[in-house]
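New here. Invent one.

***
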Amino acid sequence: MRINERIIVQILICIIIGIIISEPYIPLVCGFVLYLLTKKIRFIGYAAIIIGGIFFTHYHPIIQQEKNWQSYENVELEGRIIDIDYYTYSTRVTLDNVAIITNDNLEKLPYKVQLTLPAIKEWEEDIYSEYDIIRCKAKVNAPSVQFNPADMDYAAYLRSINIVASLSSSQVISYETKQPLIEDIRNKLNYLVDTIFEHDNSGIISALVLGNKDNIDSDIYNSYVSTGLSHILVISGFHLGFIYVITSKWIFPWLGFYYECICDELNIPNEKRCQFLRLLYVPRRICSLIFIWTYCYIIGLTISLTRACTLITITLIANLIKEEQDFFTSLSLAALIVLIPNPFALYSVSFQLSFGAMLIIGTYNGITKYLETNYPMFLKQFRLTAQLKNNTMSTNKIIYKLSTVLENAFSSFFISLAITVGIAPILSYHFYKVSYIGVFVNVLLMPVFSILIFLIGSVLLIGIVNISIAKLLAYPIIVIVNTCNAIVTTLSELSIGTLYIGRLPLVVIFLFYTVWIGVILGIIYSKYRKPLFSYSALVVLGFAILNLVPSKFEITQLYVGQGDCSVVRTPNNKIILIDGGVSSSATRIQNHLWHMGINTIDLAIVSHADSDHIGGILELLRRNHPIKTVVIPNVDIEDTQLIELLALCKVNEVEVIEAKQSDSFELDNVAMNIIAPEINPTNSDKNENSLVFELVYKDFKMLYTGDIGKSTEAKLNKHLTDVDVLKVAHHGSGTSTDDYFLQTITPQYAIISCGVNNVYAHPKGETLEALDNAGVKVVRTDLGGAIKITLNNGDIVITTHIN
C-alpha cells in the first residue's frame, strides 16, 4: 500500500509534527506554498491537521490542570491509591479520582497526582494498598527542575503518564481500606507465583508473567539492562503475541474439544449444543482477545500493552471480516489511541521505544517482502533451505531441519540488528549508551524466554488445581531462570558490549533517520537511488569528519545537593573527577559521563574523607566503574572511609597516589599543582587537611579548596597566586573565604556548591558579602544547577544549566 493511501498514517504524522513544533505559522506558510506549487489541496489539509495538533497540545486539559494545581499552596485532598513506591526516607503514592475538599465540599479534578508521605518504619507492615482511599492535608510542590544536563526531566515524565501535580503530606486525616475484585485477583496471582516459585530469589518469574519488577534483584536487573534484555522484563507485545497464539491455538481449542466430548457423553445432539462453547474459529479468537485485554487490565495497561493489544485487535477484526490488514495503518491507529488522550506521551521513552521497534520490524518485513518479489535470486543465496532443496543432502531430514533452525536464527539476528541500529538514537538520547551485545543475546535467549513463559503459565494453571505438584514442576523452571541470569550477568561484566554514544543532538538524530529513510527509498525506487544514496553517504561522511574534531576543554561543577563534585574533560576526552558528593551522587556522575559519551575516569581526586566529598567515588568503586588513578591527601589520620577506599582500589586494581604540598600531576596538558596538605600536617581536622590545588590549562587557572577554614587559608597565602576561578571552600560556610585570602588570589569568578534550602543555610551571608566586596562574580549550584566553564579564544565562559 502506498503512503498516500494510508490516511491514518498521514494524520498521525501531521499530529506528531504539530505536537513537536510550537509555531502555527510554520505549517500554515509551508502548506500554502506547497499548494501554490502543486495545486494539490491535501497540503492545505496537512497544514490544518498540524495546526490542530499545535493548539490541541498547547491548550490540552493536562496543561490547564497543571496551572490549576500550581495556584494552590496547601490543600486538603482525597484520592484513590493506584501505585505505591517505598523508599528509605519516604513513601510515594499515585492517586486518581482526586478531589480537593473545601468546607466539606468535594471538587472532583481530572488526571492523577503524586503524593509523598512519611517513610514506613522498619518494624511496620506496609500500611498502604492499591485502591484504598486516602484523605490528607498536603503542600503543593513546585514543578521539578533539571539541575544537571543528564538529569531526568521528571516534570515531562509525570506529564507523559497523566500526573499533573506533585504534593507532600505529613498528616493523614483518614484512610479507608478497599479491595475490589481486580485487586483480589491480582493479590491471588501474586500469592500463587510467590508460593509456587518461592525459590526464585531473583524476582524474574514475577516480572515475566505479572510485570512486577519490585522484587527483582537490582544487580540482576542492571545486568539485563546492560545486555539489552530489559524489554523481556516488561510485559509487552512479545508476551502478548505469545499468549495470544497459545490461547487461540491451544487452550481454547482444547476447551472446545473437551466441551464436545462432554456433549458426546451426554448424547446431546449437534443442533442443541451451544455454538459459542464449541469454540470454533470466531469464538476462539474472541475469547483470546477478551483474555488478553483482561490480563492487561489486571497487571496494568501501559503504553506498550495498549499498542500491542490494539494491533492484535485490529489484526483479528481484519481477519474476521476478511479484509487485508495494513501493518502501518494499524500501528498508526494504535499510536493515535495513545496520543489523543495525552499528546505528551510522545516524549516518553516507552512510547518511542515501543512504537519505534514495531515500526522498524514492519519496515524490515516490508523490505524483505519487496526483495523476495523483485529480486528472488538475490535472497535465495542467503536461504539455506532453498539451497538444500537443490542439494542431495536435502534427503537428510535432520540436516534440513537444522538448516531451518539456522535460517530462523539468521532472520532473528537481522531483525535484532535492525531494531538495535534503528532505536540507537532514541537510546542515546535517553540513556546515552547502546548495548550492541544485545543483538546476539536476544537471538540466543529470546526463544528460551518464550518457552519459559509457556512453562510458567502451564505450572500456574496446574497450581490452581494442585499447588504441591506445581511446586515440584517449578524446580526445573527456576534452574533455567538461574542459568539465564548467570549468562546475562557474565555477559554484562565483560568490558565489551556497550557503546557509549552520549546524548546525540536532535539535529543529528533527524539526519540519522533521513539517512535511514533515504536508504530504504533508494532500495525501492531505482530512479531515485543515486541521489538518495549520495545524500546518505554525504551525511555519514560529515558525521565521520565531525567526530575527528577534538573536544573543548570544559569543567562542570555538578549539582549533587549539599556536596562537591567537579568533572573536567580535556580536549582528548580524558576525565578528571574532583570529589564525588554523597554516595547517591554516583548515579549522577555516571549519567553525566555517559551523557558526554565517556565511561572511563582517568583521574579521581579526593579532597578529604567527608562523606559529601568521598561518598560518590566510593560508590563508583563499589560498582567497579572504570577508574585508572585515585589521588588522596597524604595524611596519617586513620579514617574508615579512606580505609575502605584503599581496599576498593586494591580490589579494582586502581593506582593510588598520596599527594602532598609541592607535588604536581599532568593529564593531557591539564596540570594540577598541589598546595596542601603540608608534608607533615599537625592539624587532625579532616577539613583543614583537605587537598588544595591549582588546576591549570594554558592561561586558565582554577583553585580547588576542599573544606579548609580561614586558618589554613592564612597558612597557604604565601603559596598562592592569582587565579581566574575559585571553588569556594566548605559550600560557602562562614568559616572560610576571608578578605585577605581573596585579595591574595583575586579571582574573577567564585563557584559555590551547595544544596537547595540546605539545613546549614549555606552559603552564609558574610561569605557572600566578602566575595561581593572583592568584586567576585558568584555562581551557585543551588540557584543555577550544574555550572559549566569553557574557554572561548582565551575568554572564560560560565553558564548554568537551569538558566
In short: The chain is about 50% helix and 20% strand. Residues 506-547 form one domain. The two ends are 48 Å apart (CA to CA). The longest helix spans residues 397-431.
